[in-house]
Sequence to fold (307 residues):
Amino acid sequence: MTAPAIRRQRVGRSVTSRAADSIVRRLISLNGWAAIVILAAIFLFLAVNARRALEEVGFWVMSLGTEWYPTIPTPRFGFLPLLSGSVLVTATALVLCVPVSLAAAIFISEFAGGRVKEVTKSIIEFMAAIPSVVYGLIGIAVVVPWVRATFDTDSGLTALSGAIVLAFMIAPTIVSISEDALHAVPNSLRQGSLALGNTRWETTYKVVVPSASSGILAAVMLGMGRAIGETMAVLMLTGNAAVIPDSLFDSVRTITGTIAAEMGNVVQGGLHQSVLFTLGLVLFSITFLINLVADLVLEKQRRRWQR
Fold:
């Protein structure tokens, strides 16, 4: 092949490569903008359907209200019982889940052998794939009787029962993301710590875990978003009493449980339906903020390791 032909072939490949890169960049950019548009459309849809409740009842009246009686002649739409139920169940689930999940992530990333790591990661992935209603059925059969017998409660359908099952449900999310964050820590840091005389365990908790702290925090926040948005399991296990709880052994009702239980029985276009859409708007805003903060934390970690 002559020199001009080779030169033309290289130029042709270069042009084709640049064109392909340009198309891929535009597709990625288009997908990113599409995601933003979809999120904005969801927010707008919820806001439009919640407008009647916001105008007739008022956002702060609903947010600070302590009673939820939507079907009486003079309905009361207080969000505090539902918010407190969601916060109590979610916070308890995180307290139960985070230490165990973090320990599991550290074991998988730093101490497990190849075969053990494959098996444990497969089990975690399988746990994430189990439908939430199945977790609810397991909770009804196992957790509820155990809570009733152990703590001598009138009913095992309590905030604690929902939190225990919810802890199992969010564990795969926290373990997977935490393990990825630990695995992303450069090996040079581990080798440097070992060279200074630290043991493998000292290297893990003095060097690896602090270095992956941003990713671990993001994992916890994503698990929190998963927990606060869960519907079926908490609807089946928490007793669905729309009151402000005094303890973990009281029955509670969450935001998601309320929407799921009542949306099918409301008058289309009525005030009750609009209030439920307002609840959905509040839930959407909470989960959006949680995921946004988690993404910002992960981006901070990525920039940290790129320096």
Summary: Residues 3-56 form one domain. The mean pLDDT is 86.
